[in-house]
Each structure stands twice: as C-alpha cells, then as structure tokens.
C-alpha cells in the first residue's frame, strides 16, 4: 500500500505516518525508487498508536511498547514493556476515576439547574444521544443540544 491509502484507512495524515516512522513507531519498507511501501499490519499499528495518543501517552512511551506490538519480543524486552504498560494502565484508571467524578459533578449541576429552569429536563430524563430542543435559558438561544453518554 502507498502512504495515502494507509493514511485514509487509519484516519491519520500522511505527515503523521512520516512522524511515526521518524520516531521509530513504525518501520516501512521502501521501493527501489524510494517510495514507502506499507502493509495491512501498518493500518492496525497506526490505529493502536492513535489510541495510545488519545490516552495521552507520549511518543517515547509508545516506543517502549513497540516490542510488545511485534509478534514475539524477547523475554527481557517484554518484561520492561510490561512495567511500562502496568504504569500506564494505572495512570489511565486514575484518569478514568477523575473523569467519572467530573461527569457526576456535571450531572449534579445539570440536575440542579434543570430544577430551577422551566423547559429544561434533567440529564437523567433523556436518553444518551437523544436530540432535545431547548428554546432559551435567560434569553440565550441554545438551539439544539445533543446529550451524550458518559459511558
């Protein structure tokens, strides 16, 4: 595959793919004329890298995990990566707890606000993803508001 196809299928820019290569996150073969030649596995790898970036892992941390993305890392390499993965999992769990607390606090504020505003419904009264219409709040036109699930 060429860079454009991988970029499209993985949902990233061509520039991102070149950056991942520069950072050692992916290895790409080259044609005799120097064009990058990608394989199906690159799409999977790039999506995984994107997931890690979304979880706020750095390029350096992701690079430490690369050996475990390979088919069979050595025991020593796998043990080092295991430590990194466990550390990041713990960090993500703390972040998830913090986000859950923030969602709960927002739910409380929404419920309290809805109780004092005619025409507003509690966040718990609506289905996640349901499109509701609110005319206005204190003269502010809100138009349509999409409620999203926190789960």
What is this structure's SSE topology?
Elements: H1 3-10, H2 14-22, E1 29-30, E2 36-37, H3 40-54, H4 59-69, H5 75-116, E3 131-133, E4 136-137, E5 140-141, E6 144-146
Antiparallel strand pairs: 1-2, 3-6, 4-5
Helix pairs in contact: 1-3, 4-5
Output the keywords.
5 helices; single chain; elongated; mainly alpha; two-stranded antiparallel sheet; about 10% strand
Detailed description of the structure:
With 151 residues, the chain is mostly helical. Helix content is 56%, strand content 9%. Strands 1-2 form a two-stranded antiparallel sheet. The chain has a two-stranded antiparallel sheet with strand order 3-6. Helix 1 packs across helix 3 and helix 4 packs across helix 5. The model is unreliable at 130-151 (pLDDT under 50).
What proportion strand? 5-15%
* Helical stretch tally: 5
Walk across the major sheet and give the strand order: 1-2
| Gyration radius from CA atoms, angstroms | 23 Å
Low-confidence regions:
130-151
- The strand count comes to 6
Main sheet: strands, sense, barrel: 2 strands, antiparallel
Structural class: mainly alpha
> Helices and strands, in N-to-C order?
HHEEHHHEEEE
Mean pLDDT: 81
Please give the alpha-carbon distance between the first and last residues: 36 Å
Domain HTH merR-type: 1-68
Keywords: DNA-binding
Protein name: MerR family transcriptional regulator
Pfam families: MerR_1
């Amino acid at each position: 595959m060429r860079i454009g196809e991988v970029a499209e299928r993985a949902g990233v820019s061509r520039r991102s793919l070149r950056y991942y290569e520069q950072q050692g996150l992916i290895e790409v073969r080259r044609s005799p004329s120097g064009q990058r030649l990608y394989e199906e596995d690159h799409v999977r790898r790039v999506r995984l890298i994107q997931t890690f970036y979304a979880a706020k892992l750095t390029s350096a941390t992701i690079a430490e995990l690369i050996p475990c993305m390979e088919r069979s890392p050595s025991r020593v390499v796998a043990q080092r990566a295991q430590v990194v993965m466990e550390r990041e999992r713990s960090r993500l769990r703390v972040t998830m707890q913090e986000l859950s607390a923030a969602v709960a606090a927002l739910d409380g504020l929404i419920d309290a606000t809805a109780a004092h505003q005619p025409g507003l419904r509690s966040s718990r009264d609506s289905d996640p993803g349901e499109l509701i219409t609110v005319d206005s709040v204190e003269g502010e036109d809100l138009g349509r508001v999409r409620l999203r699930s926190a789960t």
